[in-house]
Amino acid sequence: MALPPNNIHLINPPINNNRPKAQNPIRRSIRDYSMPGGERILAWFLLKYFPPTKTVKLRNDITYFTQYEAWEHFKDIIRRFPHHGMADWMEVQAFYNGLTPICRSTRG
């Protein structure tokens, strides 16, 4: 059964190119609230998981890192793996080999 010619618009509505296109609400919200390069998301993430007090503490930990702390960290690793089978002198040599040339020359 065919539709009468005056009802054909029910199947193929007329196209009006002058109407503004409807935008996906998700895309619109992303566009409205985003910054170039995701800087806004990065700022939110850093503020949520690295508040200023934590950032200052971590920065100080990096700035005031000492060779003593590296040695303590190395000893902790050795303690976690007591059956490594390395002699004491081999442990010291492994630590020394891990030092940078500048640290090697300033050993004390």
Task: Give the topology, please.
Blueprint: H1 25-33, H2 39-49, H3 52-63, H4 67-80, H5 88-98, H6 101-105
Textual characterization of the structure:
By secondary structure, the protein is mainly α. 57% of the residues lie in helices and 0% in strands. The protein has six helices and no strands. The protein is elongated and about 95 Å long. The protein starts with 24 loop residues before the first helix and ends with a helix.
Keywords:
108 residues; mainly alpha; 6 helices; 57% helix; Retrotransposon gag domain-containing protein; Retrotrans_gag_dom
Brief summary of the model shown:
The chain has 108 residues and is an all-alpha fold. The protein is built from six helices and no strands.
| Topology pattern, helix = H, strand = E | HHHHHH
Overall SS class: mainly alpha
User: What is the overall pLDDT average?
Assistant: 74
Span between N and C termini?
99 Å
How large is the radius of gyration? 33 Å
Contiguous runs where pLDDT drops below 50 for at least 5 residues: none
* Total beta strands: 0
- How is the biggest beta sheet arranged? none
> Level of helix content?
55-70%
Strand content: under 5%
> Shape, please?
elongated
Number of helices: 6
Protein name: Retrotransposon gag domain-containing protein
InterPro entries: Retrotrans_gag_dom
Domain Retrotransposon gag: 45-100
